[in-house]
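Summary for the steering committee. The consortium agreed at its last meeting that each partner would contribute one worked example illustrating the joint modelling workflow. Our contribution is presented below. We chose a case with several input lines so that the handling of multiple components could be demonstrated. No manual editing was applied between input and output; the record is shown as generated.
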Amino acid sequence: MPQAGAYHHGDLRAACLRAARELLEEDGSAGLSLRAVARRAGVSATAPYRHYADRGALVSSVAAEGYRELAEHLTTARPAPSTPDDLAAVATAYVRFALDHPAMFRVMFAEPCDPTSEERVAATSAISAYVRGIVRDAFPGTEDTDALSTSVWALVHGLAFLHLDGKLDSSTPEAVADRVRSSVLALFTLSPAIRKAAPSD
Amino acid sequence: MPQAGAYHHGDLRAACLRAARELLEEDGSAGLSLRAVARRAGVSATAPYRHYADRGALVSSVAAEGYRELAEHLTTARPAPSTPDDLAAVATAYVRFALDHPAMFRVMFAEPCDPTSEERVAATSAISAYVRGIVRDAFPGTEDTDALSTSVWALVHGLAFLHLDGKLDSSTPEAVADRVRSSVLALFTLSPAIRKAAPSD
DNA sequence: CTAAGATGTATACACCATTCACATTAGGGT
DNA sequence: ACCCTAATGTGAATGGTGTATACATCTTAG
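What follows is the complete predicted structure of the assembly.
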């Protein structure tokens, strides 16, 4: 039975993760220090090193958790997305997640982020596959599904960041939802002008 | 005549900016510390405070310079853009800028960034206006130019970030250029499937 | 020429990441 | 039941960082 004595924590690894997430919510990414995490977990400053190689490793774990939660948030918004309309709904859910958890979202995407963290790679490729699945269902006639889903992800991701950075008004959830929705759909309803102007390959 | 004596630097403000940019190129955003800037400028650790309120102010100035250079980079790529093809070229230039100056790009967009820096606001609105101009010329028949240009900016911005974060292959400039180009254009060439699937308003 | 303001320095404090030697404990092999 | 080992947590120390404060030096306006 763990947690009998006070010397050993029991599950410090998980406690650190939880503390890190709380600090992120409260003080933003600036407040996420190893020492603060240790303090909150009620443990000495260097104890976390037994479970994380360095600060970056902790951050990577937090990010990975964020990816999983984002994925869950999206599937909750639309459990079985298969139409352009579903796609728009998922897109707004994506942006909403970013605005509801700004510090977490920044940790997930705005860090230097070495690509050697398997946890991160696995989690992001899950999201990528999810988007690809929706696009495949929503636009069955598409030749290059990968390219299109990349475009969609990039569009939504960019919208999230521009809102997050205050470059676009995000005062009300409705305003954001409307913009995301219309942005996603607008790009699909412009064909006449474009086909006339750019009839290449 | 400045720079006669050694006590006063002459133009420490500019020297700090230059030093900050060099450190950014060399060591990434992690190496950008006020103390390192001061060291490189050959000045005491607290001297920069005479010209910048705090670290954030320095970073904001660097970011503002980055915005201006990005704008210049884009206009150099296509001095008078007016077609979808031009738009694609400008888009690749945008992503290329991000990949060529990753640390700078992150400073520009991935920082918490209080919206109270006039320098930043002015510089970003310039880019926003530039994109809007291209879109207006490239798609004259569009009702809501603002919405469309927002979408375009978001798409390109998202592509830049996904490449930067290693979520998309950026091993060769050609691969990146092809993907950006096709991503931007692909979204304009899907009309049949979409109009059939989502015939709303 | 001098006094005041601008600019740079020195010192100090608090915080942080990280390392290392050490203390405590849990659990498996006997 | 016992001990030994590996896992886990502690404490002190090192070197880096942002920032405030008091002080030194220079420039320049009057």
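Chain A has a mean pLDDT of 86. Chain A has nine helices and no strands.
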